[in-house]
Amino acid sequence: MRHAAHGTRTSTGGRLRGRAVLIGLLSLSLVAAGSSSLATGSTDDLAGDVPPAVQAEEATTALEPATEVEALDGAVPEAPAVEEPAAEEPAGPAPDPAAVAIGEEPDRDEIADEANQEAADEQAEGPAEGGSAGEAAKPRATDAEATDVAPMAVPSPGSTSSVITVKVGGDRTDGSSVAGLDGVTLRLYEGGQSGPTAPVDADWATCVSDSAGDCSFTVPETQESVRECVWWVGVCLDWRVISPAGENRDRQFWVVQESAPGGWYPNTSLVTGAANSQQSTAYRFRTGSQLRAGNTYRSGTHFMAGSGDQTRDVSSGRWQVSRDNPQLPATCEAGIDVALVLDLSGSVANAGAVGDLKSSAIAFAEALEGTGSRLALFTFASTAPRNTSPSGRNYPDLLPIDGNLSTIRQRINGYQAEGGTNWDRGIAQVAENGQRFDLAIVITDGLATFYGTGTNPSGPGSFTRFVETEQAIFSANALKAQGTRVLAVGVGDGISGDAANLRAVSGPTGYTPGASANTADYFQTGWHELAPLLENLAKGATCQATVTVDKVVQPYGGTAGPGMGWTFAATRTGGDGQVVPAVPQVTGPSGSVEYTVRFDRPDASAATVRIEERLSPAQDAEGWSLDDVRCTVNDRPRAVTVHGDAVVITGITAGDDVACTFTNVQTLEPGISVVKRAWDVASWPHFGLPHGHPELPAGTGVLDGTTVTWTYTVRNTGRTVLHDVVVRDDRVGTAHCPTSRLEPGEEMVCTASGPVTPTGP
C-alpha cells in the first residue's frame, strides 16, 4: 500500500538534501510503500512538536508599549534586540514528528552560519558609542523616570508585515530629554550601501510624525516562505513552494525627510569630520539587514544609531528638524535684552585670537550704549560654562549696558580659552536660564565635538558626528521656542567652509555682502572682521544704520592719503529715519566721520541720505576739487551719482553699513617763465648772475668760437608746485639748475657755457 504525507513550514534557511536523508533513514528501517499527503499550518501552529532539526528558526518575545519621549541622557541610545511577537500555542494535535517536516530544512553549516550572524547582530545592537574614547555609554532613563511621557502611537506589526518607526525630535525639554515633533514627512527610498536612489512607489512608504514624534512605516509582505514536503516511507522526497516569502522580507531601505511642518525647516545635510577632514554629509539613514513579519524596528535601536569616534553618521536616534528663527521685537525704543554666548575652547587660544574675541565682544557692548539695552554673558568649551572662575564663568543676569560698560569690559577681559566645543550645552544653558532674551549671539570658531551635561560630556572631542549637532539643534529649538532670535557667528578658519551646522542652529539665511545684517541668521567672518560685524549687529538690532565717510586727498604731484580738516554734512531726503548728528562734522587725522540713521520701528521705510562735501575758501583757493566718490552698502559696491559736491544714497535700512570714500585732487594750472641772457665770460662756476662781467645783449657781434656763458632765470608763475624742472638749450644742451622743484612765485637761475657758432651765411 502506498501513502504519502505532506507537511508545510515557513523557512528562510537552506534547502534540504533529501537524497542524503532518504539514505540515512533507509539504513534504519524499511517502511511499506504507499502515498498520502498532510498539509500543516504555519510554524506557530507546530512549535514544540517539530523535531529539533526543523523547528522554527526565530525566537520571539512579546511587544511592550514604549514611551512618547525617551530620555537622551547624553549618550547614544542602546540597541536592544528586535521586538518580535510571542509564539502562539499549537492549534490542535500535531502530526507525527517522524512523518512531517516544516519548510526547507537547512543543512547544519547553514544553521551554524545563521547562529553566528545572529550573535553578531546582538553584539551590534549593544550600547552605542556616546562619549569620548574609553568612555562607556550612560544608561537610558527608565519608564519610571519618564513620568510625563505617554505611550507612543506606534502601530503593531501583523503576521505578514513589519513596522519601521522613527522618532522625530523638536524642542529640548531638559538636559537629557527632547519632545516629539508632529507633521514631519519621511519616506522610504530604494538604494544600496552608497545611498538612496529613488523613492519607493507605495503608500506605505510614506509616514507623517504624530504628536509624540512617531513616524511609522507598516511594511507589508515581510513573511517567511511556506513550503510543502512530500514524504515517502518516512522520508521527505522533495519540497514545493506553497507560498513564497514576502517580497519585502529582509529588504533594506533609506529613510529620507521630504518635508517639515509650518514653522520648521529641514536640514538635509550636516558637516562632519575633524578640522582637516570636514565634509558635507547627507542626513539620511539606512535600515538594518533584517525586516521580518511581526517585528518592530526602531530608530536609535536597530538603525540610526552606530558607534565610533570617527563614524560620521552616529546619531542619537532622534530625527532633527530646526525651528524657524524668531524676529526681533517690533519696537525700536526700549532697547533689547541680549545673551552673548562666547566659545572659549582651546582652538581660540591656539589661533591667537582670544584678544580679538574679547575686543569684539566689548565693541558689541559699546555699540549698544545709549540704547537702553541689557547684556548677559555666557561661555562654553567642553562644558558650559567653561568653568566657574573669572576666566570662564557666566554672568547670566541681564545688566544694563548704560552706566556699566567698565564692569562689562572687566568681565570680558578676564576670560581665557581652553577645552573642546559643546554647542549643545552652550545654547541650552541660555534656554534654561529662566530669563527671556530678545537676541542670543553665539560666537564659535569650530564645529561641535561634545554634547551633554556634566563635567564629563559625551563626544570624541576632535571629531564632529551627526549626534553632536543633533543635540545642539534640539537646544537651539528650545531657545527659539521662547521667542529668542539666535544668531550664529562662525569666525576663523575652523568654520569657514560649509555653513550647514551654523544654519541648523540659527536659521536658513546666511549673511552675504550687500545684505542687511538685520535679516541674516548666521555669519562667517575672520577674526579681524569680527568687531565691525558685531558693531553692525548691535546697531541693526536697535534699528540703526551706519554711514561712514572717508576723505582721501591727492595733492598736485604728490601721494594720496587721508584728508584732515574736511567738512561733511549728512541729511535725510526721503523715507524714514533720523540722521544723527544733525550738524556737519570735520574729519580728524584718520580722515573719517560717521553718522547714524535711527529708525523708530523695524518695518520703517528705507531712508534716502544725501552726503555733501563743503570746501572752505582756503581749500577752494588752493585749487582742490572733488574728483571721485565710491560707496558700498554692506561691503557691496553701490552705484551713486555725484551732484556737484554731493551724492545721494537710497534704500538704507536698519543694520546696513554704508561707507563712502570722497577723493579730492588739486587741479591748479601750472605756470613758468624763462629769461635767457648771455655774458662775456668763458664759464661761471656758481649759479646766479655773473656780476663784474659784461652782458652781451641780443645782436652783439662776437668772433666765432668765442666761449660765453648763458643764464636762464626760471620762475614759477602758477598756483601749484612745479616738480622735475629741467632747462634744455638746443645750442648748448642741458643747463645746470640748483633745484628741480619750485613753489608758486619761486624762481631760480640755471647756467650753461659754450662757444659761439655762426647761425648761417
- Helical content stands at 10-25%
Shape: elongated
Low-confidence stretches: 1-81, 84-151
The strand count comes to 41
What can be said about the biggest beta sheet?
7 strands, mixed
Q: CATH homologous superfamily of the largest domain - what is it?
A: von Willebrand factor, type A domain
Radius of gyration: 43 Å
Average pLDDT number? 82
Class computed from helices, strands and strand pairing: alpha+beta
Domain unit count: 5
Tell me what you see in this structure.
The protein is of the alpha+beta class. The protein folds into 5 domains: 6-124, no CATH class; 162-224 and 247-322, Carboxypeptidase-like, regulatory domain (Immunoglobulin-like); 337-537, von Willebrand factor, type A domain (Rossmann fold), CATH 3.40.50; 543-666, Immunoglobulins (Immunoglobulin-like), CATH 2.60.40.10; 672-755, Immunoglobulin-like (Sandwich). Strands 24, 25, 27, 29, 31, 32 and 35 form a 7-stranded mixed sheet that branches. Strand 22, helix 9 (500-505) and strand 23 (522-525) form a beta-alpha-beta unit. The chain is elongated, with a radius of gyration of 43 Å. Mean pLDDT is 82; it is low at 1-81 and 84-151.
Short characterization:
With 761 residues, the chain is an alpha+beta fold.
Secondary structure layout plus pairing:
Elements: E1 6-11, H1 18-26, H2 43-46, H3 108-124, E2 162-172, E3 178-180, E4 185-192, E5 195-199, E6 206-208, E7 214-219, E8 225-232, E9 235-243, E10 254-259, E11 264-265, E12 269-272, E13 279-282, E14 285-286, E15 296-298, E16 318-319, E17 322-323, E18 337-343, H4 346-350, H5 354-367, E19 374-380, E20 395-400, H6 405-413, H7 423-431, E21 439-444, H8 466-481, E22 485-491, H9 500-505, E23 522-525, H10 527-541, E24 544-554, E25 561-562, E26 567-574, E27 578-580, E28 585-586, E29 592-598, E30 607-614, H11 617-621, E31 624-633, E32 636-638, E33 642-643, E34 646-652, E35 657-666, E36 672-679, E37 695-696, E38 707-716, E39 728-729, E40 733-734, E41 747-755
Parallel strand pairs: 2-15, 2-16, 18-19, 18-21, 21-22, 22-23, 24-35
Antiparallel strand pairs: 1-8, 2-3, 2-7, 4-5, 4-6, 4-10, 8-9, 10-14, 11-17, 12-13, 19-20, 24-25, 24-29, 26-28, 26-30, 27-29, 30-34, 31-32, 31-35, 33-34, 36-37, 36-38, 38-41, 39-40
